[in-house]
Design a protein that fits this description.
single chain, alpha/beta, two-stranded antiparallel sheet, disordered N terminus
Length: about 230
Amino acid sequence: MSTVHDSRVDEWLRQALPGRCAFCLAATHGTLPWCQACHLELPWNLPACPLCAEPQAGQGRGRPCGHCLRRQPAFAAARVPLRYLDELADLVRRFKFQASPRAGSVLLGLLVEALETAPRPDGLVAVPLHRRRTRQRGFDQAQWLARRLAVRLEIPLYTARRLRDTPSQRGLDRQHRRRNLRAAFGVEADLPERVALLDDVMTTGATFDALARACQQAGAQRVEAWAVARTPLP
């Protein structure tokens, strides 16, 4: 059997067989969609900057990174438990581009587990796609996660709008990403004091920064950035 065929069979099994680990297909215990061994081997985002969740190494462990010291983001903290690497990156891609509910459920479970000790906000706001991009893709991954997380946390979900279809952020540095997203978001509802923003992946934090500013204009006093995974250092 070819390697390509093997991978397709494994993909089908991961989606079709509940009670099997989403990563290695071993039997799982209870309702968790992963086995203990794979859970331990996931690319956990530790240590990381407490403000923007940028992965860290060396002397800066657990302290604000140089980027945040030079320019503090509009959000007060970032909670991003994993790094966008290896099997976790594959899982995110299956969720985002193939709309795999199995992959989405695993990502949601990992996020809920990581947020168990986090202070609960008064509301949740999904990072919005532009309507044209949502139609093209046929799926809004952040909204999918946010609807389910709001139910789990028993908090209201508020809607933000992307006011313009910004060019792709790929290949842009932090400064150009911020410029690209200036005045890109709007929030029409009056927001509560504490809100969390949610997306599947956080890259530099520029998108969260722009949306946090829009949320502050709508009344939020403390904004946090939440995501499943953070892109690693170059």
